[in-house]
Write a structure and sequence with these properties.
Number of domains: 1
Strand content: 15-25%
Structural class: alpha/beta
Catalytic activity: a ribonucleoside 5'-triphosphate + H2O = a ribonucleoside 5'-phosphate + diphosphate + H(+); a 2'-deoxyribonucleoside 5'-triphosphate + H2O = a 2'-deoxyribonucleoside 5'-phosphate + diphosphate + H(+)
Number of helices: 6
Shape: elongated
Main location: cytoplasm
GO molecular function, one term: nucleoside triphosphate diphosphatase activity
Distance between the termini: 14 Å
Helix content: 25-40%
Radius of gyration: 18 Å
GO cellular component, one term: cytoplasm
Pfam families: Maf (PF02545)
Largest sheet: 7 strands, mixed
Length: about 220
């Protein structure tokens, strides 16, 4: 029976942070980078942009898969953007751009949107949604901004900040799910799986972080 097949989750992302989120939740994904040109999607709505990019990433990886008959294959595509002052902010163009952004953002807030597209390859079904979280930035100094930008971290992430890396001390607080800000919302993934008739516990591996044994719940 299809529902009794072991599950395989393929993450359509090169983001180490997204993979770590899944691993910390007891899920070991396969990783295939989509190679999608993000400049192809043009819209003035942040939620539409990140969801369309998530779809494109999942679909691009789907076309390269050769699913086995003895497993149920899922593909998850994600994309994140920061909505700030009515603008959509992805990754900064360069260090100067990252510095300018932080001088605007400090002491203020924006909304981090993460689009999710989950495709059940075996069942030919799809579930998708956007998770959004308000981010309040600390009022940091010019020196802190310059030092942070010089690390290179802001250049690799949407909105030019992280909460799970060097940028964590510069985020005062958030309103919403922290994993959304990192790039993959675990509560939303649980809901999307449920929409496809699956449980997130079905994706747990036998060895969880820390080496403790995790038995499938059936």
């Amino acid at each position: 029976m299809r529902d009794q097949l072991p599950l395989r989750l393929v993450l359509a992302s090169a983001s180490p942070a997204r993979r770590k989120i899944l691993q910390a939740a007891g899920i070991e994904p396969d990783v295939l980078v989509s190679g999608v040109d993000e400049s192809l999607v043009v819209t003035d709505r942040a939620d539409e942009l990140c969801l369309e990019l998530a779809r494109l990433k999942a679909q691009a990886v789907l076309t390269r898969l050769r699913p086995a008959t003895d497993e149920r294959t899922l593909v998850i595509g994600c994309d994140s953007v920061l909505e700030f002052d009515g603008e959509i902010l992805g990754k900064p163009a360069d260090s100067a751009d990252a510095g300018r952004r932080w001088r605007r953002m400090r002491g203020r807030s924006g909304v981090l949107h993460s689009g999710h597209c989950l495709i059940d390859v075996t069942a030919a079904r799809r579930a998708e949604a956007v998770a959004s979280t308000v981010v309040h930035f600390a009022d940091i100094s010019d020196e802190e901004i310059d030092t942070y930008v010089a690390t290179g971290e802001p250049l690799a992430v949407a909105g030019a900040f992280t909460i799970d890396g060097l940028g964590g001390p510069f985020v005062q607080r958030i309103e919403g799910d922290p994993s959304t800000v990192i790039g993959l919302s675990l509560p939303l993934l649980r809901k999307l799986l449920a929409d496809l008739g699956l449980r997130i516990t079905d994706l747990w591996t036998k060895v969880a972080p820390g080496g403790q044994s995790v038995e499938p719940l059936g």
